[in-house]
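Researcher: Here's a chain I'd like modeled. Treat it as a single chain, no partners, no ligands.
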Amino acid sequence: MQALFDNISELKNINTLSKHEQLVNGILNTIESKELKQGDRLPSINVMVAEIGYARKTIVKAYEDLKGRGIVVSKNFKGYFIADVNTKTKLRVCLLLYSFQTFQEDFYNTFREELGKKYIINVFFHHNNTDVFKDILERTSGRYGMYVVAPIQAPEISDMLQEIPSEKLLIIDRYLKMPPAYSYISQEFENSTYRQLKKLLPAILKYKTFILFYRDDKDYPIGILNAFNKFIAEFYINGKVVKRYKKESIEKNTLYFFINDSYLWEVLRDSKTNRFALGKDIGVIAHNDNAIKEILFGGITTISTDFKKMAIEAARYVKFRDPISKITTSELIQRNSL
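Model: Modeled as a single isolated chain. Structure tokens:
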């Protein structure tokens, strides 16, 4: 380990570097000179204190910084080890999403592009399953420098996430009540969905029936259901909530509102089979916009958050750690399906 101690000592003469930066750069330099290899054990905290003379918290901070980049890993009761010799990595990011739906793919691609190649992003999916969510958090605990999480909206999830330091966690997509120190970029569903439905009132009135597909056993936002029920009651719309779409049950003069795309594809297939024209024989509104909905059947009307903008703001937080508490609203993109 003498090479490591020598490299750190040389950096002590550079006044522009903090003690923390001297330690980090000293370790990186020793890796680059191949005097530290993958699997090698780093000196213990006590040994570093004795050899370098810096406070324990300064050394721990340097080791934790390198853990966040994925360069160092800690093993219980065994110490710190070199896990990766790619010293150009700035940060390892754990991105935990519901599932890889098209709009979340848009988020990921933009997030990836904004961060650049020096950031390593590992993506996980919890599928709105608390046990899966908990297992992922346990397996990734302490292995990443940043966690960007689309949470399950439950108090026990909030308790789990509070085990992550606030500066290393960003909540995205769904709102979850957390202590004020935690940052979030979350959607608001009820008021914004209601406002957009009001904008569509003249088009909605063309149809005899307005149907929302909503399943309470899925991760569907309750705010959309509340907005729909408020809207049809206020404007005396013949509306109803249905859990599932039954194949070949499509009817003329009906407007369909989808949260999940799987039912949307089924209705579009049946409309093609029956030669129903969108915007004339039937109407379609979908939640969450994407490129496919922009071009399919001449364009599907959507009520959606701008996930690309959310991804840009999330990437900015990862880079600069400026606290953010933002609620994003859903916007209307009206196309030919009405």
